[in-house]
Amino acid sequence: MAERTAVVVGGGIGGLAAGVALSRRGWRVEVCERAAEFTEIGTGLSLWPNAMRALAALGLDGRVREAGAVEAGGGVRDRAGRWLTRTDNAELDARFGAPLVVVHRADLVRILAGALPREALRSSTSVTGVRDDGDAVVVEHAGGSLRAGLVIGADGLNSTVRRAGWPSAGPPRYAGFTAWRMVTEPLPAPLTSGAVTWGRGEEFGFTSLGGGRAYCFGAAVLPAGGAAPGGEKAEVRRRFGTWPEPIPALLDSVPEDGVLRHDIYTLPPLSTYVSGRKVLLGDAAHAMTPTLGQGGCQALEDAVVLADCLCRAPDVPTALARYDRLRRPRTQRVVRRSARLGAVANLAWPPAVMARDLAARLIPARVTLRAMAPILDWSP
């Protein structure tokens, strides 16, 4: 019987979390990942309190805390290094019941994959198509096919599952800026707090990562498809090497081949995350800008809610309808909010930059924290 079987397409954070959530509730799950192993190219990931509660629902929050780092605080600075806003992580923990934890993506994937039965993990499995077959769905891949009562599309921005079940969905849209992500070597004096520094059409952020390392990211308003002729490490040094400390020192600690460059894309809003017995989560459903640090967090929420719906409803179609009602409005609000903040962070016109920085300086920290409540207060 296929009713309580699921194929997850995509072995990233959201797909593995969905696999864990369903496996622990008695479902037979297979997670298909096209890469040869379940891992993630290394950068950091911010796990806000809502994501930590999702991980707690999976019984994995303790292991993730051990693998990551909890900072004392953070905030936003201007181009001269002056603080515009400050955040106290202890206050965040007290207000929302969990801290902000920064973890290496590869460590989080390792923890999630380790929570699944070995037979549930199908690496080197590149999915080529998905088709309905009565009360089941067939997933076709290079080595054959799989049949299940549910297919979960967790295969990212260019999702094969989305193309199969949502043929009229619009293509990804360039968000207008490019991002660089990097992890330093262990630092002589590890960071105790992080910051995002706003410039003109550029920004740079850093946060502690554990093991004495730091996770750093930069962004700039640029046309899509570019590449630095002298290498991306040289490019970030050229753009950010004279910015306020500790940015230059952090860049000195980044390996020469340790800078990843990605154009940032988002998805047009879908009218539903469900097509028959196919369902989308994470970037496959609602790819967003990284400005709020909520992409991975929302994928974890998706996974936990999907499993809960499937285990409470009398059948899969009823469960998926409830999942769509719960997740689509929330995630699409987060997408819009992240896009608005990204537009503010990447302002380039000098008068607009001055007005932005002044407004940020005048807003009390408690107001900023309260404004985040609709996102961070989420519980499974």
From TrEMBL:
Q: Under what name is this protein listed? A: 2-polyprenyl-6-methoxyphenol hydroxylase-like FAD-dependent oxidoreductase
Give the FAD-binding domain ranges.
6-164, 271-338
Q: Which InterPro entries match?
A: FAD-bd, FAD-dep_Monooxygenase_BioMet, FAD/NAD-bd_sf
Originating species: Actinomadura viridis
Q: Name one GO molecular function term.
A: FAD binding
Keywords on this record?
A: Monooxygenase, Oxidoreductase
Which Pfam families does UniProt cross-reference here? Answer: FAD_binding_3
